[in-house]
Each structure stands twice: as C-alpha cells, then as structure tokens.
C-alpha cells in the first residue's frame, strides 16, 4: 500500500494539514494582536488544506473499493 502513489499523496496532504495546524497553534500561543492575526490566517489555510486532504482520502477509498 505504501508504494501506491495516491496513498503517498494522501499521506503528504495529511502531513501538510498537521504542519499548518502546528504553525497556527504555535502562533496563537505566542500571544499578541499580530500573532492572533497570523494564527487566524494559518487556521484558514488549514481548513482549505483539510478539505483537499479529505477529498483525496475519498478518492483513494473510492479507487481501493473499485479495484482501480
């Protein structure tokens, strides 16, 4: 399974979401108004990246079920 290119793309997408989440939490933890704005921007990026990751996971599951 780990040699499947679509699985690797899904894994990378999930790791990107995790990285953005950690950036947002770290920025929020520093405090201050500027960091709050940056944290909010990171969390918006996380939502977009998470939507892409979920779509890729659904595509992966679809192709695994149909045998493709």
TrEMBL record:
The keyword Membrane applies. The chain crosses the membrane at residues 6-25, 45-63. It comes from the Bacteria. Coiled coil: none annotated. Gene3D superfamilies: 6.10.140.1320. Keywords: Membrane, Transmembrane, Transmembrane helix. The keyword Transmembrane helix applies. Residues 1-68 form the HIG1 domain. NCBIfam families: twin_helix. This is Hypoxia induced protein. It comes from Palleronia aestuarii.
